[in-house]
UniProtKB/TrEMBL annotation:
Family designation: Belongs to the LppX/LprAFG lipoprotein family.
Protein name, entry field: Lipoprotein lprA
SUPFAM superfamilies: Prokaryotic lipoproteins and lipoprotein localization factors
Organism: Mycobacterium tuberculosis
One Pfam family from the record: LppX_LprAFG
Length: 45
């Protein structure tokens, strides 16, 4: 289920792309917050 979402609450836009493979009778909820907040991400091993 590839999904592309453009989010803009302040006139700018933020691209969010996800790909999820849900199983039968599964629902997906995605909550996003703290736009503009600094984050630290590391490469998976």
């Amino acid at each position: 289920m590839p999904t592309t979402v453009w989010i803009a609450s302040d006139g700018s836009s933020h691209l969010v792309q996800i790909q999820i493979a849900p199983t039968k009778d599964t629902s997906v909820t995605l909550t996003m917050s703290d736009w503009g907040k600094q984050v630290t991400a590391t490469k998976p091993v």
